[in-house]
Amino acid sequence: STYRASEDSLLYVAPLAAFTKALHDLPALQDYCERGLFNLLERSRAALRAAFLAESLSEHPFSKPLSSALNRAALTCGEDAELGQALTRMHAEKVGAIVVVDAHGGPVGILTERDVLGRVTLPQLPLTTNVMAVATQPVESLDALSPISTAALLMVTKNFRHVVVTQAGKVIGV
Fold first, then answer.
1. How much is the average pLDDT of 100-108?
2. Under 8 Å between Cβ of 111 and 131
3. What is the DSSP letter of 63?
4. Which of 66, 152, 166 is closest to 108 using CA atoms?
5. What pLDDT sits at residue 59?
6. Which end of the chain is more exposed for a tag (fewer CB within 10 A), N or C?
7. What is the pLDDT of residue 133?
8. What is the pLDDT, as a whole number, of residue 21?
9. What is the predicted pLDDT for the residue at 159?
10. Residue 97: predicted pLDDT
11. Given pLDDT bands bounded at 50, 70 and 90, which one contains residue 45?
12. Is residue 139 within 8 Å of residue 110, measured between CB atoms?
């Protein structure tokens, strides 16, 4: 290793065998060296921890924007869609939710598989029912630039499985 002094220093050069014997024979020297080594290791560990934390926070997946987590466009339907149409599309696309959008592409409702059981199947609603009659309203949505951590917190606190992601007020993903 190469060491550089940051200020004037006094250095002793001793053969390894003589230093090892002195450590063994002089408990005070051994204690001094162990404490010095321990402090050096602790400072090194603290510096590494700080560097790792700074790097991991900036690159942590939960700090990335929601848009980076979207793998596909949201499945959407208009406010005038029938329940049967929405469910058929959900099944065909193999997704657990369809977002009901207004004429401008903004979210006005969301229909999830969980909604279907409690609001459609058990009440035995006809498939010709308007989707807005059973969709969850109003929709909790987040902007695409919001961090993933915000979506995770919303999902946990509100017991959601889906969060609608918007950009400029229009649905872009779930």
1. 96
2. yes
3. G
4. 166
5. 60
6. N
7. 96
8. 93
9. 86
10. 95
11. confident
12. yes
Q: Distance of CA 123 to CAs 85, 126, 127, 163, Å?
A: 18, 9, 12, 26
Q: Which amino acid is at 35?
A: R
SS3 157: helix
Structure tokens belonging to residue 37: 């080594």
Distance between CA 38 and CA 61 in Å, rounded?
35
Alpha carbon distance 114, 46 (integer Å): 48
Peptide bond into 107 cis (omega under 30): no
Q: What is the pTM of this model?
A: 0.65
Q: Which residues of 101-126 are buried (b: 16+ CB within 10 A; e: fewer)?
A: beeebbbbbbbbeebbeebbeeeeee
Answer yes or no: are the C-beta atoms of 109 and 131 closer than 8 Å.
yes
Contact residues for 65 (Cβ-Cβ < 8 A; gap 6+): 144, 145, 146, 147, 148
